[in-house]
Amino acid sequence: MGAVLATISASGCAGQAARSPRARLVPVVIETERGNIEAVLDSTHAPLTAANFLRYVDAQLFDSARFFRAVRLDNQPNDSVKIQVIQVALSRANGRGEFPPIPLERTSETGLRHVDGVLSMARSRPNTATSSFSIVIGEQPSMDFGGHRQPDGQGFAVFGRVTKGMDVVHAIQAGETNGQNLKTPVRIIRIRRK
Question: How far apart are the first and last CA of the chain?
């Protein structure tokens, strides 16, 4: 674990966790048809959100999920506040539903920020996040508490960070899109604890 922490930027969530004597980082692997993405979940600073994500992992609900959305600067013509992310949605083909929504762990409370490579929960209104998550590309302060990507200014919950595989993230983001939807979604084979 020490070697993993040494490779993570101090500006992100895992960097903050590295400074905490009781930090708990949970490593996971997102296996996709384009390659693997390794990440650590910050269960110290975002315990509810990390536990929720692991609940989906342990129930194998991310098996056959898809990266369906690739948000780039060139495909947001109507957005006054632009971001860059790729986003996951569960497969509806498995016929299994989602767990109940979780409370929003605001970045103003966790101290985590939307920097390059963080995992962030998708949501519509506060306290509506379930399973969909994004991987952030570049610094996106408009997704933090007080930012204006969401009109309510409450931001999104950061709960982890990519430690290896950002080349896979960039390849997914570069895929051909219809608006922001990938024309060929990228299948997640599974997400597992490492």
Answer: 11
**Tokens 């390849």 sit at which residue?**
171
CA separation, residue 55 to residues 48, 49, 107, 130, 136 (Å)? 10, 10, 22, 11, 22
Phi, psi of 68 (to 5 degrees): -110, -15
Reported as a single tens digit per residue, the pLDDT across 158-194 is: 999 999 999 999 999 999 999 999 999 999 999 999 9
Span 103-160, pLDDT tens digits: 999 999 999 999 999 999 999 999 999 999 999 999 999 999 999 999 999 999 999 9
- CATH number of the domain at 2-193, out of 3.30.43.10, 2.40.100.10, 3.40.50.970, 2.60.40.10? 2.40.100.10
180, exposed or middle or buried, with CB in 10 Å at 0-12, 13-18, 19+? middle
Instruction: Give the predicted TM-score (pTM) of the model.
Output: 0.88
